[in-house]
Every structure is written in structure tokens, then in C-alpha cells.
Amino acid sequence: MLAPAFPADEAQRLQALQALHLLDTEAEERFDRFTRLAKRLFGVAVVSVTLVDAHRQWAKSIQGIELRELPRRVSFCGHAILSDALLLVPDARLDERFADNPLVTGEPFIRFYAGQPLRAPNGQRIGTLCLIDRDARAFGDEDQALLKDLALMVEHEIALLQLATVDELTGLSNRRGFEALARHALSLCGRQQRPATLLFFDLNRFKAINDQFGHAAGDQALVAFAGLLRKTFRESDVVARLGGDEFAVLLSNAPQTELAGALQRLRDAVQGFNSAQPAGGWQLLYSVGSAAFDPARHANAQELLNEADRLMYEDKLSAGRER
């Protein structure tokens, strides 16, 4: 068996994949309809929209088998993302890369594989739309063209999903994206009994920036604060602009000592930013509310968000607490 190599731009590829926030999310009809359609059109045993992570491949949508995750070292899709071209394996038993692969010698006894790479909006190959069958088979030019067309449709759906869940101004998740990611993160933390904390931020005197310096300056303030949040918190944390001048950060599996350190780093970063502003210019000021996730009190992400929002307003109203 030949384990798949890593692309030369693997770091950038993984960054593009993670930025989509699709890994480990629930099944969605927008992708399931393509795998169902492909299964009917090609008459194969298994169809999957597969994402290739650092050490695993994971199926966002799969038809024909209940196997959503596999080690990358045994994956066919790991080989497929090495090129823009379709990877076609008519009979895996005759291909030195796969002949002794455990997925060929054992369940699901793969014989035929066709994987068309899927690209993120920035062009990075993040996974495949793949067909799998237990019987060796031919796959002609028309079949290949059809699979490529379906893959382009999946890519279009990925791009639309990103647009629908990303704030255009700051590049952070928007409210819709945050709610979806937070729902998944809190479910995981609840099952694994790991801590999670939600921080709710509101920019103070933001209206004054718009009134005194103009809306372009207001946009600059939002982008600047978003950048400081992104730099301060971990890549695994969910950072979002909920709307207007409201932001949220959901930290998973972070002890209180780590949370306190992150908040101090943010205060220092904002202070450094304000110190660099020209005399008489606008300043970044914010209030923050912090709510620790408790499955017994918070039935969903919205309840946790409501509590953090309430605590943020208490912070805003407390004398001497404005930053």
C-alpha cells in the first residue's frame, strides 16, 4: 500500500479547509442531494462528499455506507487531492497504490474508485466528490464529464455556504455561522464534559465614531477590533461578528486561567492599538460579558448567548468599567 503524499501547500490547504467550518458538522440537505443524485446516476454502492483533514478524511455527506471517517494514510481521497484531475481507479486490486489497502482487502472491499477534487473558493483542494463500488468497472468520458459537473455544483454550494455564514466586512463568522458552529461545539463539550465559555463584546461609543469621523472610520474600527480578536484567541475558538458593533467568541476546552490570560492579552492589544492612533482620533473601547457553559442551565447556544449579553450590559453600565 502506498500512503498518500502531502501537497506542497499543505499548510495553506488546511487553512482554507478549516476556514470553511465544515468539518464535524451535521449532515445538510444541500450536500445530501448531490450524493443521492450521483448514486442514482452512476449506480455505484457509495458516494461521498469527502473532506481531507490533516490526519483523516471525513464525509460531509455519504450515501451507501455508515462510515464517515477514515485515517488519511489509507484514504483514496488523499491521493485524489494531489492533482486537479479526476483520480480514476477501475480495479483497485490491479493498482500498486491500493492493492493491499485494508479498504480493498477487507470491508468495504473497494474495487472501483473515481474521485473528483473539490476546491475551496480560494482554489485550494480540500476534498473530493467520490464514487466507490465493490465491482471493477469502466468509466468513460461522458461519465467523467458528468462527475466533474456535479463536483462544480458542490463547489458552488460550498462557496454559497461560506458567503451565507461569513461577515463580508470583517471576514469573521456572522450570526448564522456562529450559531451553527456554536451548536456543534457546545454539543461536543457537553458529551465530553469539557468546559466552554462564551464572551460577548460590544464596542462602546461606536455611534460617536460614525457621527464624528464618518462611517468609513466606523468600518475601520470594526475591522480593527475583529483583527485583534482573531489574533488574541486560538484558531479553535469561534470568533464572530453578530451584527452592528457586537462580537462573540466561544472558547472550547479552555480553563479559567487561560481565559483570563486571553482577556488580558486583548486589553493589552487594544491599548497598544489606541496608543498608536493619531492625536484626536477615534479609540477602541469595549464592554464584555463572560458566561460559562452549563448543560443544566443552557439548553442551547442562544441561552448561553443571552446570558453573556446580559452580563456584557452589566459591564457596560458599571461605573469605571468602560475600556
Task: Describe the fold and architecture.
It is a single chain. A 6-stranded antiparallel β-sheet has the order 3-2-1-6-5-4. The protein has a 4-stranded antiparallel β-sheet with strand order 8-9-7-10, with helices on both faces. The chain has helices at 10-19, 29-42, 77-80, 102-105, 141-165, 175-192, 206-213, 215-232, 256-275, 301-317, and strands at 46-52, 56-63, 69-71, 87-89, 112-119, 125-133, 196-203, 238-243, 246-252, 286-292. It has 2 domains: 10-165, GAF domain (Beta-Lactamase, 2-Layer Sandwich); 175-317, Alpha-Beta Plaits (2-Layer Sandwich), CATH 3.30.70. Residues 319-323 have low confidence and may be disordered. A hairpin with a 5-residue loop joins β2 (56-63) and β3 (69-71). The chain has 323 residues and is of the alpha+beta class. α2 packs antiparallel against α5, α7 (206-213) crosses α8 (215-232) and α8 (215-232) packs antiparallel against α9 (256-275). Residues 194-323 form the GGDEF domain. This is Sensor domain-containing diguanylate cyclase. InterPro entries: GAF, GAF-like_dom_sf, GGDEF_dom, Nucleotide_cyclase, Rev_trsase/Diguanyl_cyclase.
List the helices and strands and how they pair.
Elements (H helix, E strand, L loop, with lengths): L9 H10 L9 H14 L3 E7 L3 E8 L5 E3 L5 H4 L6 E3 L12 H4 L6 E8 L5 E9 L7 H25 L9 H18 L3 E8 L2 H8 L1 H18 L5 E6 L2 E7 L3 H20 L10 E7 L8 H17 L6
Antiparallel strand pairs: 1-2, 1-6, 2-3, 4-5, 5-6, 7-9, 7-10, 8-9
Helix pairs in contact: 2-5, 7-8, 8-9
GO molecular function, one term: diguanylate cyclase activity
Keywords: Nucleotidyltransferase, Transferase
Organism: Roseateles aquae
